[in-house]
Amino acid sequence: MDIPPYSVRVGGDEKGGGEWIGFDRISEPLRTPLGWCADLIAIAAEADPNEWGQAVEAAVMAFGENFSSKTFLADTNEFFKAVMSNNPGALKAMQKVGEGVATSFFPFSPVTQQVRRVTDPVKRETPGATAPGANPVHKEVSRLIDRLMDRTPGFSKRLWPRVRFDGEDGIYDPFWGQGLVRLLGVVSPIIAKEHRPDAVRQEIVKNNISMSMPPSIIFGHREPPLGEPDWTLGIDLNQNPGWTYVYHKLAGNKLKIPGSVLAEITDELGQQVFEDVNVKGNQYYGMWDTLHELIKGDAYKRASDGPHGGKSMRVSRIVRAFREAAKDVLINGIGERDLKIEGLDKRPSSWSPTEGDALLRQLVSEKELEKASALGGEQVRQELEQQLRDRGMMK
After folding, report:
1. Is residue 367 situated within a structural domain?
2. 173 and 222 share a domain?
3. Higher pLDDT, 222 or 75
4. 173 has which bridge partners?
5. How many domains, in total, are found in the chain?
């Protein structure tokens, strides 16, 4: 999970240490042979050793993978997918063509992009305009502008950081000899990353546990590519990227819950979510902290392995519980509850750690009214609206 693609580790041992040296940005003709070898080894490692015939197939797959990563061929592939496909996915394919062509010109060249990563190593979000009902052309143009800003030194810092699963900001791997860029203006094509294994990440990879970032759509579904949206359309937090940033940070590890409260949390079946976690009542834990405590316990170690085993189930339950808590704090704030928020230095001006976000609460209330009207009729909607006003959820 922490290993950069197309890289080798230099130094260190089985416990860690050393650094990863990547060759993914080395220019031709050296990159292609190295890419063949890396892809061939990676594919062959998954093959049945008794089926020697798969070695030939692995070599062909490696050859194709190496060339399909070339920008020109990738754009060509997306172009033909767009013009030959009569389905909603064709729009996204054509969009990728335009983005690939636009961002390939100077000043968005690879050299400029490397300078951007040296001066601003933080990975950035590029959602574009996502407000419901926005003009589709406006959405695509704004997303393209965000991507161009992300690749341009100086402008990238205007975008919100992309958050990792553990709640930390995503950082690009540093280039080898990075200090020479500022000193001599030299741009290195080789990345170097210190090897720092994390026990939770290793468990997730080892058990092939499916994990993704919290969805930016809450209380509903994403807007359909075709047709009119209905009451099932959710709230897209990316219409204010700061909301998404805070949500991901809180759900990752910045929202701290005391052990005494964790012990009382139950799931939809009434089972204690944290029964197998050895937490202390007077200490505060974030999601990532709690997972570290979980994997130390005997109950976790005895649980079955694999993506559908007991270990995966325990990890997923904790992740879901913290995401629900983070969503509630994003909307309503902490209030007078015994919760803490640590290390959240950047946040949107409309959001308060204690009070949440009034605009987001209004959107949530309107979504609840829309659902009530669709499922229960106008009378049910009016009754719910009065309840929301009494609770201060609506103006």
Report:
1. no
2. no
3. 222
4. none
5. 2
> Of 74-83, 90-99, 161-170, 314-323, where does mean pLDDT reach its minimum?
74-83
Q: Could you tell me if 156 and 97 lie in one domain?
A: yes
Mean pLDDT lowest for which of 112-126, 177-191, 279-293, 310-324? 177-191
Q: Are residues 101 and 26 in the same domain?
A: yes
- Indicate whether 203 pLDDT > 70: yes
- 138 vs 77, higher pLDDT: 138
Are 156 and 235 within one domain? no
Q: Which of 3-7, 140-144, 226-230 has the lowest mean pLDDT?
A: 3-7
What is the pLDDT confidence band of residue 84, given thresholds at 50, 70 and 90?
very low
Among 168, 201, 234, which residue terminates a domain? 201
Looking at 201, 226, 243, the residue that finishes a domain is 201
Query: Are 189 and 256 part of one and the same domain?
Result: no
291 and 172 in a single domain? The answer is no
Find the domain containing 38 and state its range.
Answer: 7-201
> Does residue 163 have a pLDDT over 80?
yes
Q: What's the CA gap between 222 and 203, in Å, rounded? A: 31
Q: What is the pTM of this model?
A: 0.70
Residue 313 has pLDDT above 70, yes or no: yes
Question: Do 131 and 243 share a structural domain?
Answer: no
